[in-house]
Structure formats: structure tokens, C-alpha cells
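Bit of a strange request maybe. I'm writing a small parser for C-alpha cell strings and I need a real example to test against, not something I typed by hand. Could someone generate the C-alpha cells for this chain?
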Amino acid sequence: MTYWRELPSLVVAREGDSVTKSPLAGRFQEAIDEAAMRLGETGSDAYLEGWTRGEWTPAEGSGAEVCDRVVSELEAQWSEDRVTAYLDALGPAQDAGAAS
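Reply from user aminoacidic:
Good idea to test on real output. This should exercise your parser:
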């Protein structure tokens, strides 16, 4: 999986030489962008540093089946309320133009 900080963004499954990628719903990218604004990490370097990949985990099924299953699980685990609480914990958006 690919994350921006703790927020999931993309599920990748590998089956032999074949790779299947499934992005999560658009609300996750919106939350990632909102989190970056709240943290003042809107510059390309700061934003890019937030991206990480999780460890590969063996799973049963085809690449598409695994992606579908994991995407469904993540979307259920990260309800609208959980995403909102995560964003609220980050505080208000930082003014990228403010002097430090």
C-alpha cells in the first residue's frame, strides 16, 4: 500500500510478473491534500516526503481480487468520521506564505 503519512492512497498487488494497482476513493486524495495544507506541507519537497510504501504482505487470490478486498477494507476502516477526526487532530490549515 501507498500512504501519505497515515492516510492510505493506493493498493498494489503483485502476482508473478503482473502488478495490479487500485486507488482508493477520491475522498482519500482530498483528505491527503487537506492534511498537507493543515500541516503546511504544500511545497513539492515537503509533500513528497510524506509518501511511504507499506511492506508487501502475502494474500490469497488474484491481484485484482486482493486489491478489491484491501480497498474495501480500508474504505470501511477509514470512515468519513475517522478521516474527519484525523484532519481535525492536525489543526487548521497553515498559511504557506507566513513568515516563520
